[in-house]
Amino acid sequence: MVNMEKKEMENLINQFQNYQQQLQNILIQKESLKLQNIEIEKALEELNSSKEKDAYKITGSIMVSKPIEELKKELNETKETLGVRIKSLERTEEKISLKLKEMQTKLKGISG
Predict the structure, then answer these.
(1) pLDDT (tens digit per residue) in 17-68
(2) Angle separating helix axes 2-49 and 68-111, nearest 10 degrees
């Protein structure tokens, strides 16, 4: 019986560590997406304040001249996509956090 509890405890600890790693990865991804979002907002601000009709976009290793309105549209679409991805990561983060709390309670119950 004691051996079974030890195995169960080891399994729970491994699962707990896996969930912690997943949560950390999600937080890193979310932060990266938020930084991209900030960059897009700054670019949109610059485009909105510009009096020019065209601006340059870096594509691969070249810069291409494009109409500002087209660039704004592209940036807004990218911003929207990032928003959806951030929300998805936040939902996953929430689920994993709840799972970690449940497992922490179980681990305390077994070890205590």
Answers:
(1) 999 999 999 999 999 999 999 999 999 999 999 999 999 999 999 999 999 9
(2) 160
How many structural domains comprise the chain?
1
Cα gap 48→28, rounded to integer Å:
30
For 95, the domain range is 2-111
Helix, strand, coil percent values for the chain (each to nearest 5): 80, 10, 5
Q: What is the CATH number of the domain that holds 100?
A: 1.10.287.370
pTM equals: 0.83
DSSP class per residue in 23-73: HHHHHHHHHHHHHHHHHHHHHHHHHHH---SEEEEEETTEEEEEEHHHHHH
β-partners of residue 66 are 55
Q: Tokens representing 95?
A: 């689920």
